[in-house]
Every structure is written in structure tokens, then in C-alpha cells.
Amino acid sequence: MNCYPSTTVVLHECEAKLLSFLFHEYGKGVTIYERLKKGMTLCDAIAMKTCREIEGTFGDYISTQFKKAVLYTGPVLPEPEKEPLEEHRLSNWLEFLEPGSVVFCAFGSQLILEKKQFQELVLGLELANLPFLVAVKPPKGTNSVEEALPEGFKERVQEKGLILDCWVPQLKILSHKSVGCFVSHCGYGPVWESLAMCDCQLVLLPSAYWLMEQELKVGPEVEKDENGWFSKENICKAMKCVMDKDSQVGCFVKENHRKWKEVLSTPGFISNYIDNFIQNLHGLLAE
């Protein structure tokens, strides 16, 4: 099943590994991919947690391939949290920093970096000479992020950077006035939250999700080599690209982000999708 008929998608080894779960056994003698394909072949309709404005072309292709209706739920975003970050211990650190000056980097629970890539990431943050907050899982083969830090790194950055391996209130951090850049692995949840609910600039370190950079053009992707590895220089370059006020690329992606946020935050946009989705389900039952 090729989901992109007009686009040749070449995955690096590290990206391919993230999709390898599709071919793991899920039940006796059946892979996840086989279950998905059979389900989409035998069902009456296919539901997609997205909106036509952003992934309509993809939905149309799926509908054509499987010869059945595709129903859109919309992004299904959480209600904005009313309580500020003040109750969290990070608030004291952020409050003393300039508005829009902090780089926040978070990769969620699924993406665990190799130790070498983790070190390139934090060295790139240091190279950018901007205050930063990193929330990631300990790199592979290590017990903690502190154990994996490059030699002398902690002493050099001191209070300018915080690196945590625990849960943090991501949406509240992204909404904080001091945060100006979000370095994301482009997981589906963070994609929608950062696009629709926050104003900070985006730097994309995608594993296998090309939508943000190639289609929506709301942030630059960190350049990788032929093996899918990124360097500290390219991490720094991407961050500087969006944080530099005189950057043409930064202005371009910021304006695109603003436009998409305006669309997604239009009153009734999300609720209308949910209402239409429910009506379409009722329509299927009535047939």
C-alpha cells in the first residue's frame, strides 16, 4: 500500500526502524500492517484524526484506494489549560529569561536517541548560545541524561540550560512567554498542539512525518546526512534560522504558522468537525 502516489519517499535507516513496528506480530501469525490493511479493506468507512484543510489530499487518496468514505474527526485538541505554569518548579527558571528567548526541546516517550545523537543535540543547543530546556528520555544504553552528557558540558552551560528526563507539562511550557522555539520530533500530538495552540517558532527533527516542513512549511527541518544522522552544527543552524529576527526563512515559516493557527483556532472549527463526524456515523447506520 503506497500512501503517496506522486511522491517518492526515501526513509533513512533510523526512520525505517521507527516504522518497523508495522511488521511486528500482533496476534498469532498476523502483523500490525496486515491487521490495518484488512480492517481498512473490510470496514464501511475510514476515520482519520485530522482535517481536510491539512490532509485532504491524503484522505482522498485513501478513499480512492479502498473505495469507501473517509470521515474526518478534526484535530480533537484538548481545551487550553487555564492554570498557568506557576505551580511547576520550571516557572521560576523561565520567569527570569527574556520573552521569546528560550529553546524548548521535547521528543515525547516514543523517540529515544542514540547517545551520540543526544550529545550532538545538546552541543548544538550550546552552540546556538540561547537558553534552553530539554525534556527527553535517557539515551540508549544509559541510565540518565546526566550520565550521557558530553564531558564538561554541565559546567559550561550551568544555569543557561536545563536537561530533564522526567515528565513536564509540555503545552504549558510551549505557551510560556519566555519560550520562542520548539524543537520537535513531530509526533502527532505535538504537531497539532504546537500548530494550533502556540506561537513559538518550530524546528523539525522528524522521524518519519514530513507534513510540517514539506507541505505546511511552518518550520525548517534539521539537515541530516545520508545515514539519517544530524550534527550539532545543523541543529544550531536550524534554531538560528528561526530565532534570528532578520532571517527570511524565519519570517516565512512564522507567517505560515500564524495562518494555520488562525484557521485551526477559528470558533467552531473543531466542534463542527466532531458534529459532522457524528452525523456521518449516523448516516452509515441508516444505510
From TrEMBL:
The keyword Coiled coil does not apply. GO terms for molecular function: UDP-glucosyltransferase activity. The keyword Transferase applies. Gene3D superfamilies: Glycogen Phosphorylase B (3.40.50.2000). Keywords: Transferase. InterPro entries: UDP-glycosyltransf_plant, UDP_glucos_trans. Pfam families: UDPGT. It comes from the Eukaryota. Belongs to the UDP-glycosyltransferase family. This is Uncharacterized protein. It comes from Anisodus acutangulus.
